[in-house]
Write a structure and sequence with these properties.
Protein name: Matrixin family metalloprotease
Largest sheet: 6 strands, mixed
Pfam families: Peptidase_M10
EC number: 3.4.24.-
Number of strands: 9
Number of helices: 4
CATH class: Alpha Beta
Radius of gyration: 17 Å
GO molecular function: metallopeptidase activity
CATH architecture: 3-Layer(aba) Sandwich
CATH topology: Collagenase (Catalytic Domain)
Keywords: Hydrolase, Metal-binding, Metalloprotease, Protease, Zinc
Structural class: alpha/beta
Strand order of the largest sheet: 1-7-8-6-4-5
Number of domains: 1
Bound molecules: zinc ion
Length: 243
């Protein structure tokens, strides 16, 4: 999540990436006769399943496996499909998205597949029934009226949904980045890149850290690119098991 502060007479450095929730996790448990066990981490949902822990000095993982030892990851042997809903996006958005996706891909080794533009606006629940293919990661722009989690100082939300594709192991299957339309339009290119990369960091499984030297710090700093701790965490998140 990305939060801005009202900044009277201050420069863009007063824009603040904020804490708040990060990963949206929907957990399916196919072992219980297809019944969906849903636990949400973030995005305005009650927290019924949460394991957030320190992954090291410069990074934290959004969610750990049920054993509490390893982070939940995407399947590195499959491309992460994503779509972009350009409604409300400023001109030049595609360059920002493409470059930030490339940053995360390079840092994780995960491959992304741009499916195209979409009019899909299901920002809050992308998983669908158990027997359907998960929707691609959705990147889009909205106002707080449509996405209440963008209300107040929040200028962006990012997260992923995980499923029990194997017994006792969760795998991310879809995700979302939604950016607060109006403040995003006012940002310069560098800050837009920082915000989108930060939110994509959540999508691949990073949590915020307290270190202002990392892009996953909750507030904007002079850092606008991935830091050493971010890169360490992203490398691990790209090294999950293939299914
Ligand atoms: Zn965040």
């Amino acid at each position: 999540m990305f939060r801005k502060l009202s900044a009277h007479g201050r420069t863009r450095s007063s824009l603040v990436l904020t804490v708040a929730l990060t990963a949206l996790v929907v957990v399916f448990n196919p072992t219980s006769t297809g019944e969906q066990l849903r636990g949400m981490l973030g995005i305005g949902q009650d927290l019924t399943f949460t394991i957030t822990t320190s992954g090291g000095s410069g990074y934290e993982f959004a969610v750990l496996q049920p054993d509490g030892l390893e982070p939940v990851t995407w399947d590195p042997c499959r491309e992460i499909r994503y779509v972009v809903n350009p409604e409300g996006a400023p001109s030049g958005y595609a360059e920002v998205v493409t470059a930030s996706v490339a940053d995360i891909s390079r840092a994780t080794g995960l491959r992304f597949d741009y499916v195209g533009t979409t009019d899909d606006r299901r920002f809050s629940d992308r998983s669908g029934p158990l027997d359907t293919t998960p929707a691609p990661v959705l990147i889009g722009w909205a106002t707080p009226d449509e996405v209440p989690d963008l209300a107040g100082d929040v200028a962006g939300v990012g997260g992923a949904e995980a499923a029990h594709l194997e017994r006792d192991r969760l795998t991310y299957v879809t995700g979302v980045v939604v950016l607060d339309r109006d403040p995003f339009a006012e940002m310069g290119h560098t800050l837009r890149r920082a915000v989108v990369t930060h939110e994509l960091g959540h999508v691949v499984g990073l949590e915020h850290v307290d270190d202002p030297g990392q892009l996953m710090y909750a507030e904007t700093t002079s850092r606008s690119t991935l830091g050493a701790g971010d890169l360490d965490g992203l490398s691990i998140l790209g090294s999950g098991p293939c299914r």
